[in-house]
Amino acid sequence: MCDARTLTRHAQLVSDMTRAVGVDLPHALAEGQITGAGMQQAVIRCTECTQAGACQRLLAAMTVPAEAPPDYCRNTALFKTLKDTPLLKE
Asked: How much is the pTM?
């Protein structure tokens, strides 16, 4: 089990990466495209990654949106699904 600080750090990384790849996470949550449980699973997958520092540096240096997350990202499939699934209300 992760401590609160680790979970908070990785929740922020997940949120930042969704934004970096062009996903409107609050809208996706509101529309049911992803659930709270789905977000929890994404954060847990992120905590299992050994590249959190590299991810944080990549996100901090980003000046334009990314086409996709880095190859090492454990949430790539989720982010692709969120990005490629049209929302009901825009």
From this structure: 0.90
Q: Which of 27, 31, 5, 23 is nearest to 75 (CA)?
A: 23
Nearest to residue 52, comparing CAs of 23, 80, 73, 79? Answer: 73
Domains in the chain: how many in total? 1
Question: Is residue 87, in this structure, part of any structural domain at all?
Answer: no
Are residues 83 and 21 in contact, defined by beta-carbon separation less than 8 angstroms?
yes
Residue 27 maps to a domain: yes
List the domain range (segments joined by +) for residue 35: 4-81
Helix then strand count (H, E) for the chain reads: 5, 0
How far apart are the C-alpha atoms of 17 and 73, rounded to whole Å? 10
pLDDT (tens digit, 9 = 90+) per residue, 57-67? 999 999 888 98
Torsion sign across C-alpha atoms 16, 8, 44, 32? negative
Distance CA 89, CA 86 (A): 9
